[in-house]
Write a structure and sequence with these properties.
The protein folds into 2 domains: 2-259, Nitrilase/N-carbamoyl-D-aminoacid amidohydrolase (4-Layer Sandwich), CATH 3.60.110.10; 273-474, HUPs (Rossmann fold, 3-Layer(aba) Sandwich). Helices cover 38% and strands 17% of the residues. The longest helix is centred in the last third of the chain and has 21 residues, at 380-400. It has helices at 15-31, 56-72, 151-154, 170-176, 194-209, 269-287, 301-314, 331-344, 354-371, 380-400, 410-415, 436-450, 457-461, 481-493, 498-503, 508-520, 522-525; strands at residues 2-7, 36-38, 78-86, 95-103, 106-112, 137-140, 143-149, 181-186, 213-217, 219-222, 225-228, 232-234, 240-243, 250-255, 293-296, 319-323, 347-350, 403-406, 428-429.
């Protein structure tokens, strides 16, 4: 059998645009002699459509476009296409996440997703009914093909790589019914951990059941989610037979009869994350209807990395960096920012804000002093500077039709080392899921790829500082980043308790301080710009902590 793995970048709600992409890929598959073309989960609507599914008009429109696509698909080609199916005739809200098997203008059958993920960033039980049909097999190219949808295959794991288990096993049911080939259509987001674990899981399924597994994944950014593609075919022994591109659209044509092992990717973890953030930034900006971005460039590593990502994602001509110095800004920082924008080729303007800051000092000091005395630990004027910078960035964005990118990292966001309505404000938090220690690793990957110091070496080696008061460094307010990130990884991502982290060898005072800061900052994070997700547990839609609460364990 000749297969076409049609790995597309769908835009949620762009029914006509998605339909055009599907038809173009199907024609390419047909021209290449494919017997079966497989598209990702909900390829027609884009994934996840979320509460668009609560609108009957959207479901109606998607079904109308689906019918037209079915009629226009190339003759002789069997197509597995993800779409939204009504659970009953004229039902307005009861829906299935489904795959239609189409040939010669007819829907031969549909498979419905049986396992609905409702954890972390997933909330499918909110919109869909689980499929209840018996295992569905369709014959293509002389083989009995069983179709599953994303989560359906994650329950059938030999070596555990997922926390979830379900009372039914769609894959085992298909194999018991006689499936000779397993096809899984997916919208499986990228994370650093899943990048390896998902391939391991799919190989385990193939090896356990002794049949080839075809995995076709969505690619592209959708709000905070990034889908990496990496569609693949695994042989019955678990060997990787074919693999589509990572973080890019692809129509991969492969013959099952010619299956044989291929080499694993050599891409580093830092490189994969960099590619993911470039893709996520590009799609977020463009799918929101924009083409340009603006950000503050301080001479620090965070803004340098975000600027480099934006330049690659959108082209240097669509990125404007603003230096926004005050009396506390150092010459080294300005020189580093200037060197960065020159190396990237992005736009640059210096907008000194000290006069605006002085106006605040002159006009507000007496009022603040009358209300409460300032003292050690008072950050009022530091935050005023950050908010002035935000006002300048937003003013430039309004005038130029750009989006503002924020530059805070996960370590800062976790413990609240950031300013509400200041450096937290913007349209997209590009590196909000990267711990500070990993920011440095990805920044060095930028330079490695370029073969030169795009991000100045002094940016990578000097002590990080917000430069909002004299001689300030981050470590005046925070634990050393290597210790901070180690505690945060255990508390936020591994979800260990305070005592468990202490038992692992960490200082009690350090752990209790970090945990306290994480909880005190919950209200800040609720107002953070959407952040691109690359870890197993990010701040955002997949972490729903109460703001007003007292638990500190």
């Amino acid at each position: 059998m000749r297969l076409a793995l049609c790995q597309l970048d769908a835009t949620v709600g762009d029914l006509e645009g998605n339909a055009a992409r599907i038809l173009a890929a199907a024609r390419q598959a047909s021209a290449a002699g494919a017997d079966l073309a497989v598209f990702p989960e909900l390829a027609l609507t884009g994934y996840p459509p979320r509460d668009l599914l609560d609108r009957p008009s959207f479901v109606d429109a998607s079904l109308a476009v689906f019918a037209r696509v079915v009629a226009e698909l190339p003759a002789g080609l069997t197509v597995a296409l993800g779409f939204v199916e009504r659970a009953a005739p004229n039902a307005s809200r009861r829906l299935h996440n489904a795959v239609a098997v189409v040939r010669d203008g007819q829907v031969l059958c549909t498979a419905q997703k049986r396992l609905l993920p409702t954890y972390d960033v997933f909330d499918e039980d909110r919109w869909f009914e689980p499929g209840a049909r018996a295992p569905l097999l369709v014959e293509v190219g002389g083989l009995r093909v069983g179709i599953t949808i994303c989560e359906d295959i994650w329950n059938d794991v030999v070596e555990a790589v997922t926390e979830r288990s379900y009372p039914v096993d769609p894959v085992a049911d298909l194999v018991a019914a006689g499936a000779q080939l397993l096809v899984n259509v997916a919208a499986s987001p990228f994370t650093r951990e899943k990048r390896q674990g998902r391939a391991h899981m799919l190989a385990s399924v193939a090896r356990k059941h002794g049949v080839p597994v075809v995995f076709v994944n969505q690619v592209g950014g959708q709000d905070e989610l990034i889908f990496d593609g990496s569609s693949a075919v695994f042989g019955p022994d678990g060997a990787l037979w074919a693999r589509a591109r990572e973080h890019a659209e692809d129509v991969l044509i492969t013959d099952l009869a010619a299956g044989g092992p291929i080499a694993e990717r050599a891409e580093t973890e830092e490189g994969a994350v960099l590619d993911a953030l470039v893709l996520g930034t590009r799609d977020y900006v463009r799918k929101c209807g924009f083409s340009r971005v603006v950000l503050g460039v301080s001479g620090g590593v965070d803004s340098a990395l975000v600027a480099a990502i934006a330049a690659e994602a959108l082209g240097p001509g669509n990125v404007l960096g603003l230096a926004l110095p005050t009396r506390f800004s150092s010459r080294l920082s300005f020189d580093d920012a200037h060197a960065l924008v020159g190396a990237l080729g992005i736009g640059f303007r210096e907008v000194p804000i000290d006069a605006y800051f002085q106006a605040y000092l002159d006009g507000l000091s007496a009022h603040l002093d009358a209300l409460a005395p300032g003292g050690a630990g008072d950050v009022t004027w530091e935050n005023v500077q950050s908010r002035i910078r935000c006002a300048v960035l937003m003013g430039v964005a309004n005038r130029t039709g750009a989006l503002v990118l924020t530059t805070g990292n996960k370590s800062e966001v976790a413990v609240g080392y950031c300013t509400l309505y200041g450096d937290m404000a913007g349209a997209l938090a590009v590196i909000a899921d990267l711990p500070k220690t990993f920011v440095y690793r990805v920044a060095r990957e930028v330079n490695r790829r370029a073969g030169r110091a795009v991000i100045p070496e002094s940016t990578l080696t000097k002590a990080p500082s917000a430069e909002l008061r004299p001689d300030q460094t981050d470590q005046d307010s925070l634990p050393p980043y290597d210790l901070l990130d180690a505690v945060l990884e255990r508390y936020v991502e591994q979800r260990l308790g305070t005592e468990e982290i202490i038992a692992a060898g960490f200082d009690r005072a350090l752990v209790e301080r970090v945990v306290r800061l994480v909880h005190l900052s919950e209200h800040k994070r609720r107002q953070l710009a959407p952040g691109l997700i690359v870890s197993r547990k990010a701040f955002g839609s997949g972490r729903r902590m109460p703001i007003a609460q007292r638990w500190r364990g």
